[in-house]
């Protein structure tokens, strides 16, 4: 299994495969460990990039989004889902292996390196659709019992799974204002728009902090702002992130470089959407071409607290 072309490709790109899942350090971890800037999660929510583990419990996905830069075109042959405890230990060991390589470098910030050895955040967002992993609830519970926060990023196609989960923060991707555009942009494996709408409705229950994430490409999905506002307004998320498509990885075979919006375009859309929703423009990161909208009652910075006895999370 481990000598397949797909797995060799992932290994060359820096992925460390752990059973059915994978872990990979991002460029922001590297920059942060060298005393540099940190990613948008730090600027928006206070998450330290050098203490963040970027992973996925599964390499499978039921979308083939035009804007996705991950190597989703060549899926890894089906693997049996790894048990949650085994997966978590393997992911954390893989992260420590990455971190150890910075120990002998003169450019490494020693204080941040010490902090990195004690990760405090799990970003379940590396690639694939995590709700296809059958033990996702158990995995999230194990992570949070370690005192770590969890950000779960989902394409919103499995509401029955999402209804059982309570991560620190739940992201739902919304990259189209209607069903026709959804089919064009996301290339779902089957008819899944009704499931997306059902997942959006789940956000009203407020079982955890919630975010609608929009990846926007020029000439593709930047129109229909009123329809976006209607869908988001019905879901009532705590936050909305508007992020520019970046011409990277496999997406370069599907979209032109001209599809990358400028930060000014993202900001213009953010202002328009904020006015329609009654959300305030909370923050922006021009380097990443991303803007954050927030409900008036929402506090954006994550604060850790002791895990409650009932296991209900953060």
Spell out the key features of this protein.
alpha/beta, 314 residues, single chain, disordered C terminus, 11 helices
Provide a descriptive summary of the structure in words.
It is built from 11 helices and 10 strands. Residues 305-314 have low confidence and may be disordered. A 10-stranded mixed beta sheet has the order 1-2-3-4-5-6-7-8-10-9, with helices on both faces. The protein has 314 residues and is of the alpha/beta class. Helices cover 33% and strands 16% of the residues. It starts with a helix and ends in a 20-residue tail after the last strand.
In round numbers, the mean pLDDT is 92
Number of helices: 11
Strand content: 15-25%
In what order do the strands lie side by side in the largest sheet?
1-2-3-4-5-6-7-8-10-9
Measured distance between first and last alpha carbons: 38 Å
Report the order of strands and helices.
HEEHHEHHEHEHEHHEHEHEE
Task: Give the number of DSSP strands.
Answer: 10
In short:
With 314 residues, the chain is of the alpha/beta class. It contains eleven helices and ten strands. It has a ten-stranded mixed beta sheet with strand order 1-2-3-4-5-6-7-8-10-9, with helices on both faces.
Produce the secondary structure layout.
Blueprint: H1 5-12, E1 16-18, E2 21-23, H2 27-33, H3 40-45, E3 52-56, H4 84-100, H5 110-116, E4 121-124, H6 136-145, E5 149-154, H7 159-162, E6 169-173, H8 179-186, H9 193-202, E7 209-216, H10 225-235, E8 239-244, H11 263-277, E9 280-285, E10 290-294
Parallel strand pairs: 3-4, 4-5, 5-6, 6-7, 7-8
Antiparallel strand pairs: 1-2, 2-3, 8-10, 9-10
């Amino acid at each position: 299994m481990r000598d397949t072309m797909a797995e060799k490709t992932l290994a060359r790109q820096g992925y460390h495969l752990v059973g059915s899942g994978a872990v990979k350090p991002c460029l922001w971890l590297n920059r942060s460990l060298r005393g540099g800037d940190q990613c948008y999660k730090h600027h928006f929510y206070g998450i330290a990039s050098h203490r963040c583990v970027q992973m996925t419990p599964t390499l499978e996905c039921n979308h083939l989004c035009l804007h996705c830069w991950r190597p989703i075109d060549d899926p890894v042959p089906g693997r049996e889902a790894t048990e949650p405890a085994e997966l978590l230990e393997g992911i954390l060991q893989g992260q420590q292996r990455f971190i150890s390589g910075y120990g002998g470098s003169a450019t490494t910030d020693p204080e941040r390196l010490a902090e990195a050895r004690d990760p405090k955040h799990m970003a379940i967002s590396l690639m694939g659709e995590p709700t296809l992993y059958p033990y996702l609830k158990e995995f999230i519970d194990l992570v949070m019992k370690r005192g770590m926060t969890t950000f779960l990023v989902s394409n919103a196609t499995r509401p029955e799974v999402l209804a059982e989960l309570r991560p620190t923060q739940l992201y739902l991707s919304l990259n189209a204002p209607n069903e026709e555009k959804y089919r064009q942009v996301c290339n779902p494996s089957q008819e899944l728009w009704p499931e997306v709408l059902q997942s959006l409705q789940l956000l009203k229950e407020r079982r955890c902090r919630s975010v609608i994430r929009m990846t926007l490409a020029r000439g593709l999905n930047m129109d229909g702002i009123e329809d976006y506002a209607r869908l988001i307004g019905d879901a009532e998320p705590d936050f909305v992130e508007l992020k520019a498509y970046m011409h990277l990885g496999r997406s370069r075979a599907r979209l032109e470089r001209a599809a990358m919006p400028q930060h000014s375009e993202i900001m213009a859309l953010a202002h328009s959407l904020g006015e329609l929703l009654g959300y305030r423009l909370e923050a922006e990161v021009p380097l990443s071409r991303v803007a954050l909208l927030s409900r008036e009652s929402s506090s954006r910075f994550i604060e850790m607290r002791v895990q409650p006895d009932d296991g209900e999370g953060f």
